[in-house]
């Protein structure tokens, strides 16, 4: 670049001062993104038989290193800071959410990596994907998708011809799954740390797009899996559009996308409320969709049902953490001053979510769908904590997220173990009398279900207790009453499964319980241990969740 | 104390390993922890009654002041005696009751012991949250114990019912605890008693907590789970449903009555529900043929009685309540164990089949008689002491007390009547019936039943001891001038008269049982709570199925519809109420807009009607181009250019995909009933968006800060008169480069995928097997995404 041109640049603009970057603070995110990119390169250049081990090693190692970096930073971190020109806020809630995400991501990657429960892994095989016979069918099935989703399983469980060849077992699963999951995780981490709406939107897309793909990669029941992916994608795109529109309106209202600036604008101004309300409404719709809060839950059961179980676990745990992290930040930082306007709307949404989750969950005969509805009900509980705009509400919700995430990952881990010759036995009838065949698995699952129901000595109880007591302190007694009634009703369908497992005679040709491989065992153990620990010694995580609020 | 509770649980964990080898040993081993707890409590009776209470705390989650606090005070003392004493006896009894290899026994031993431990924790708890934790754990234990073998449909259902009702109550109670704790600032029961909180929240808390207590103690209208739970093996029924678990609710009321002394609806509610439960339970017990069911309804009735006494909050009532608590635990445990023996030895417990059993099981009959004396409230049993005190408690008072007194009297008549029915039904000679055969019962079975029965008499005769025990608790309400003391003889007074009336009435009622049964048959069948429960469950199930069928059909249009409706309702309603349309909106700026708009509208109509996929895609393209045209008319050629580009690109992508799809839409015609709502929702959504766009663009008041800079600097900084151009190629040139790079990468990816698929297909000419359509999906994903971003930027 010659001096003349340089001069012209200066004429046009002042020299750009690069914003300072706190590398130590955002090291975990950078590590994750780097690993994801490296993962893509590994896909491209390593021979097929080495990929799996390299990808698994890379992912797990990165998660651990990122965790260590996070821990090292958190040790010396103050109340928090913003970096990257104020687009990312690294404060205590962020650190907590990052830690949660990394830990949950670790457990999920373990589940995803397992190749012993399903021979060769639960994902579509290398040679299978390019020749999947059902791809065409999936698309045409979609356009005729008015029929119930369950109807599609009939022809999809048959393995495609290529699968039966010996090559399928050898070639193993598609290892793109790992970089995809890592990208998604990085997106989640940015999502819950984003300090302005635009960054949040980008992060939303980064976390969503890989998830859409992951949903469609099940080895068995291809049709169902692909249908789930397309549904998730279309509805997700819709929600993203809402988010974006809301973002634009809020920008129009306040003249900035920064959360702090929006907060300032709402605090005292005579600007048009129309833009603010419509903006909040649309933005929140987008966020609630990601958190699968009813009535924006429609995708949840179908997607949870269709996606590979390991991915479902990943989605259910991590996405919820990220989405609620973002909801908390938006509500507490940007919209706190205008809380009078939206408070009762979110009240209604929380009630609806709990009711939908519980009432619809009662009829489910498929265990994955049942857990999906339970997650909708849990989203309602979480929302109760999130709209209590106090420090206790914040820390209670954070704790709940941690507790719920680990329980959920373990639940899906256990679900993946109970199988028939045609894959997972997700129909409830297959679970009858499980305790007689496999007492250990039944006991573990019972414990997890009790945690979901919120019975004492499990993390679920502690979470509910924190959240509800925070809500009561904030004066939302009627809402908490509804929440408690909902949790009692929700207990019904968890307990029904327990009754089914213990008090029924197993069917003669019922499913068997696979011996889990080291990976799945590790993931389930991690989930169960955390669930128990948080139930008995909640102080461990509580101390961390309860230091300071958001920084903007 | 904590050690004792933990010992129960630890031994319970170890028990299954013992039970596999030697079941009897397991039960003997299981009886050790309760026995130890009993011994420990006995040692502490003296100090506790003299006011030296034992307190233990353990910080649990200090940050939110959660702690495990245990405290042995007079009330806890009475309950501990029951829980541990009866627990040890029942475990010893089970040793002989269950067969050597009975799978029921193997499951029951650890569960019963764990239950005893949890129950011990519950009665000792001094912290509301600790109490709740143990409360829920008893629910789970009892569920597992009742469910047991669970092969029968009935036992599964009743286990589930018990669990549901008590869990629901427990959660409501937790809410009450939280409200109470938050309004008082402490969760410690002893502190709450010392400084009872006041305020509106306390009244709410009282009601919520009562719901929990009522469900657990099987009060009307939640009473139906208890008789339904009688499918459990008898020792379990004896322990859970007589001595301990159902007492939890009553115990909770006793615990918290000092806190709620000033709250009117606390004692009104307990009195109303208690008296009603006492009468209804007694009435139902008169008509049961199954001895266990009879006892179960008797328990329901007695629990109502206890609820009245312990909820009232006066000293005399508390004395009565505390002694009745002891009495009931003792005689009901004994009677349940007796019924168990009868069932075990005679093979049936149906009154209509049993006859003359007293000859076969004389000791058992004697034990039963001793226990029944206490139940019917006859001297010299402890039941008599309690009943006398109860009558005394409501003697002096207004109308309310008189009504309660009358209710208690009626309830006592029923109690005597069903006591007689039990004794007569189980052991008496019945005309026209042969003597039932039964194997003589061993001492291992009879002794555990006899011990509590005799204890009931001993406590009655040695009434000063009983008085000490109950007064220590009752003194929390203040002793007053002339405190009431339990005694067998108070002189000739009204309570004695009432006792006599109850006895005479009960015996008469029993003598006239045939007529009573006929009367009941003639009465219209009341709407029972059991039916209500079943109706509610069925309704819930039906609603759930119905709603699921409507909403979760797995159809994308429906889902979209739901989301659209929500958007219409939530932000739409806000817009409707808050915003006002800008005045003077010109319908058009330029004439050229009209034909373009018409074209777009026609294309829209065409898209909706299209049968062929390609037609639909082309028409969508037409809409896009039309909008591009509108941009040109409004003077934004660059914007229009971008729009045209995006439209073309999307079209190309579409065509790639469409090649793989059938030419026509395969969806069958939607039902006409569905068409109208679809049209309505779609049109409403469109109108909403249009109106919203109009409103939003007019509602903006804040000055556009970002563009001001660009507008000001475009001319001098970039030498451009078109600000948009200046932004794209100059101010934000780096962004543009990035954008282009991304587009280029995406396009390369798409192209290579298309080529790769073609290459693969050519290589593998499998019949009827085309390339994967999953890939085109990915491709559209990328494209759509890019185009969306493109639009966003524009």
TrEMBL record, chain A:
Alphabetical keyword list: Cell membrane, Membrane, NAD, Quinone, Translocase, Transmembrane, Transmembrane helix, Transport
Compositionally skewed regions (Low complexity) per UniProt: 129-152
Enzyme Commission no: 7.1.1.-
Topological relation to the membrane, as annotated: Multi-pass membrane protein
Keyword tRNA processing in record: no
Pfam families associated with the record: Proton_antipo_M (PF00361)
Domain of life assignment: Bacteria
Region spans: Disordered: 129-166
Family to which this protein belongs: Belongs to the complex I subunit 2 family.
UniProt xrefs under HAMAP family: NDH1_NuoN_1
Protein name: NADH-quinone oxidoreductase subunit N
Organism: Halosaccharopolyspora lacisalsi
Gene: nuoN
TrEMBL record, chain B:
Transmembrane segments: 75-96, 108-125, 131-151, 158-179, 199-215, 266-287, 294-313, 325-342, 363-386, 406-427, 439-466, 486-512, 559-581, 587-607, 614-633, 639-658, 679-699, 740-759
Domain NADH:quinone oxidoreductase/Mrp antiporter transmembrane: start-end pairs: 125-399
Domain MrpA C-terminal/MbhE: 675-755
UniProt-annotated location(s): Cell membrane; Membrane
Ranges for domain MrpA C-terminal/MbhD: 598-662
Manganese as UniProt keyword: no
GO CC terms of this entry: plasma membrane
Primary site of residence: membrane
Annotated Basic and acidic residues bias: 776-794
InterPro entries given in the database record: CPA3_Na-H_Antiporter_A, MrpA_C/MbhD, MrpA_C/MbhE, ND/Mrp_TM, Proton_antipo_N
Topology of the protein relative to the lipid bilayer: Multi-pass membrane protein
PANTHER family attached to this UniProt entry: NA(+)/H(+) ANTIPORTER SUBUNIT, NA(+)_H(+) ANTIPORTER SUBUNIT A
Entry protein name: Multicomponent Na+:H+ antiporter subunit A
Protein species of origin: Halosaccharopolyspora lacisalsi
């Amino acid at each position: 670049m010659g001096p003349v041109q340089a001069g012209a640049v200066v004429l046009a603009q002042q020299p750009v001062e690069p914003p300072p970057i706190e590398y130590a603070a955002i090291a975990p995110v950078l590590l994750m993104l780097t690993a994801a990119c490296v993962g893509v390169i590994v896909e491209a250049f390593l021979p097929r038989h080495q990929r799996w081990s390299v990808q698994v090693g890379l992912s797990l190692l990165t998660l651990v290193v990122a965790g260590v970096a996070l821990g090292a930073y958190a040790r010396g971190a103050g109340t928090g800071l913003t970096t990257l020109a104020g687009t990312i806020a690294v404060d205590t809630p962020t650190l907590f959410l990052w830690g949660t995400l990394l830990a949950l991501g670790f457990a999920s990657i373990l589940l995803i990596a397992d190749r012993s429960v399903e021979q060769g892994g639960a994902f579509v095989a290398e040679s299978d994907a390019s020749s999947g016979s059902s791809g065409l069918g999936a698309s045409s099935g979609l356009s005729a998708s008015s029929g119930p989703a369950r109807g599609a399983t009939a022809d999809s469980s048959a393995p495609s011809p290529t699968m039966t060849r010996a090559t399928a077992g050898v070639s193993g699963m598609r290892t793109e799954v790992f970089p995809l999951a890592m990208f998604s995780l990085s997106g989640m981490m940015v999502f819950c740390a984003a300090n302005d709406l635009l960054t949040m939107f980008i992060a939303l897309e980064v976390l969503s797009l890989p998830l859409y793909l992951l949903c469609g990669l099940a080895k068995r029941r291809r049709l169902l899996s692909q249908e789930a992916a397309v549904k998730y994608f279309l509805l997700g795109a819709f929600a993203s559009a809402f988010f974006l529109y809301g973002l634009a309106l809020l920008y129009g209202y306040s003249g900035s996308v920064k959360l702090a600036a929006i907060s300032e604008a709402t605090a005292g101004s005579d600007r048009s409320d129309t833009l603010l309300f419509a903006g909040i409404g649309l933005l929140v719709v987008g966020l609630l969709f990601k958190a699968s809060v009813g009535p924006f839950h429609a995708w949840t059961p179908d997607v949870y049902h269709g996606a590979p179980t390991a991915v479902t676990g990943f989605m259910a745990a991590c996405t919820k953490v990220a989405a609620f992290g973002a909801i908390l930040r938006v509500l507490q930082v940007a919209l706190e001053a205008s809380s009078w306007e939206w408070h009762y709307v979110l009240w209604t949404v929380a009630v609806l979510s709990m009711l939908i989750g519980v009432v619809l969950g009662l009829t489910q005969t498929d265990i994955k769908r049942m857990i999906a509805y339970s997650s909708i009900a849990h989203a309602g509980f979480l929302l109760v904590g999130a709209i209590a705009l106090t420090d206790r509400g914040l820390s209670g919700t954070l704790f709940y997220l941690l507790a719920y995430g680990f329980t959920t990952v373990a639940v899906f881990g256990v679900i993946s173990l109970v199988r028939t010759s045609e894959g997972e036995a997700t129909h409830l009838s297959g679970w009858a009398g499980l305790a007689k065949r496999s007492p250990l698995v039944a006991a573990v699952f019972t414990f997890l279900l009790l945690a979901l129901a919120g019975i004492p000595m499990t993390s679920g109880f502690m979470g509910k207790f924190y959240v509800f007591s925070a809500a009561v302190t904030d004066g939302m007694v009627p809402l908490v009453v509804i929440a408690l009634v909902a949790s009692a009703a929700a207990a019904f369908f968890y307990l029904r499964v327990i009754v089914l497992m213990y008090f029924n005679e197993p069917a003669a040709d019922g499913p068997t319980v696979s011996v889990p491989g080291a990976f799945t065992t590790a993931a389930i153990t991690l989930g169960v241990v955390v669930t128990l620990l948080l139930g008995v010694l909640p102080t461990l995580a509580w101390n961390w969740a309860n230091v300071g609020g958001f920084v903007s | 104390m904590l050690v004792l509770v933990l010992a129960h649980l630890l031994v319970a964990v170890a028990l299954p390993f013992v039970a596999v080898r030697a079941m009897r040993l397991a039960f003997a081993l299981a009886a050790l922890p309760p026995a130890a707890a009993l011994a420990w409590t006995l040692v502490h009776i003296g100090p506790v009654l003299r006011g030296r209470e034992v307190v233990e705390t353990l910080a649990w989650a200090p940050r939110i002041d959660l702690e495990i606090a245990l405290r042995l005070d007079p009330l806890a003392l009475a309950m501990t005696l029951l829980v541990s004493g009866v627990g040890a006896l029942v475990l010893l009894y089970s040793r002989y009751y269950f067969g050597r290899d009975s799978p029921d026994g193997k499951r029951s031993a650890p569960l019963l012991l764990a239950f005893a431990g949890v129950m011990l924790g519950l009665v000792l708890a001094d912290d509301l949250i600790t109490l709740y934790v143990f409360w829920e754990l008893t629910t789970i234990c009892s569920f597992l114990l009742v469910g047991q073998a669970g092969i029968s449909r009935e036992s599964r259902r009743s286990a589930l019912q018990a669990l549901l009702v008590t869990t629901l109550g427990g959660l409501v109670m937790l809410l009450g605890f939280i409200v109470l704790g938050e309004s008082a600032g402490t969760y410690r029961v002893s502190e709450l008693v010392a400084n009872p909180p006041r305020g509106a929240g306390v009244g709410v808390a009282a009601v919520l907590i009562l719901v929990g207590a009522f469900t657990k103690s099987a009060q009307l209208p939640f009473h139906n789970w208890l008789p339904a739970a009688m499918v459990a093996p008898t020792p379990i029924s004896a322990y859970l449903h007589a001595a301990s678990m159902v007492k939890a609710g009553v115990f909770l009321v006793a615990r918290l009555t000092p806190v709620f002394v000033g709250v009117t609806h606390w004692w009104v509610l307990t009195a109303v529900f208690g008296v009603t439960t006492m009468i209804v339970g007694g009435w139902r017990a008169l008509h049961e043929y199954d001895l266990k069911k009879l006892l179960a309804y008797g328990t329901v009735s007695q629990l109502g009685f206890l609820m009245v006494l312990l909820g009232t909050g006066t000293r005399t009532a508390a004395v009565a309540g505390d002694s009745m608590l002891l009495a009931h635990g003792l005689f009901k445990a004994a009677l349940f164990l007796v019924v168990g023996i009868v069932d075990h030895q005679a093979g049936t417990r149906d009154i209509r089949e049993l006859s003359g059993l007293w000859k076969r099981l004389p000791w058992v009959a004697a034990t039963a008689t001793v226990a029944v004396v206490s139940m019917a409230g006859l001297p010299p049993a402890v039941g008599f002491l309690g009943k006398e005190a109860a009558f005394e408690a409501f003697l002096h008072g207004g109308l309310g007390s008189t009504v309660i007194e009358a209710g208690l009297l009626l309830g006592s008549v029923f109690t005597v009547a069903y006591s007689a029915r039990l004794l007569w039904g189980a052991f008496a000679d019945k005309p026209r019936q042969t003597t039932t055969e039964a194997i003589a019962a061993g001492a291992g079975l009879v002794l555990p039943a006899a011990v509590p029965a005799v204890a009931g008499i001993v406590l009655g005769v040695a009434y000063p001891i009983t008085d000490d025990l109950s007064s220590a608790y009752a003194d929390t309400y203040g002793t007053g001038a002339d405190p009431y003391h339990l005694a067998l003889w108070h002189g000739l007074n009204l309570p004695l008269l009432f006792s006599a009336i109850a006895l005479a009435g009960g015996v008469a009622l029993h003598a006239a049982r045939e007529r009573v049964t006929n009367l009941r048959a003639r009465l219209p069948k009341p709407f029972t709570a059991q039916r209500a429960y079943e109706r509610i469950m069925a309704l819930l199930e039906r609603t759930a199925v119905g709603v699921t069928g409507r909403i979760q059909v797995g159809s994308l249009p429906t889902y979209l519809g739901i989301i659209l409706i929500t958007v219409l309702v939530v932000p739409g309603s806000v817009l409707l109420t808050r915003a006002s349309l800008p005045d003077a909106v010109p319908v058009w700026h330029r004439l050229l807009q009209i034909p373009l708009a018409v074209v777009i509208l026609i294309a829209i109509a065409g898209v909706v009607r299209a049968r062929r996929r390609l037609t639909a895609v082309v028409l969508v393209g037409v809409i896009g181009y039309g909008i591009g045209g509108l941009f040109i008319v409004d003077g934004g050629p660059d914007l229009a250019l971008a729009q045209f580009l995006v439209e073309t690109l999307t079209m190309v992508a579409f065509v790639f995909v469409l090649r793989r799809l059938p030419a026509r839409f395969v969806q069958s015609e939607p039902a006409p009933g569905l068409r109208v709502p679809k049209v309505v929702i779609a049109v409403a959504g469109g109108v909403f968006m249009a109106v919203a766009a109009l409103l939003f663009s007019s509602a903006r008041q804040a000055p556009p800060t970002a563009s001001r800079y660009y507008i000001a600097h475009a001319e001098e900084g970039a030498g451009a008169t078109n600000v948009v151009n200046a932004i794209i190629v100059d101010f934000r040139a780096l962004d543009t480069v990035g954008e282009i790079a991304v587009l280029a990468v995406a396009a390369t990816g798409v192209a290579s995928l298309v080529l790769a698929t073609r290459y693969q297909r050519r290589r593998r000419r499998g019949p009827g097997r085309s390339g994967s359509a999953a890939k085109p999906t990915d491709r559209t994903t990328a494209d759509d995404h890019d185009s969306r971003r493109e639009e966003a930027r524009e």
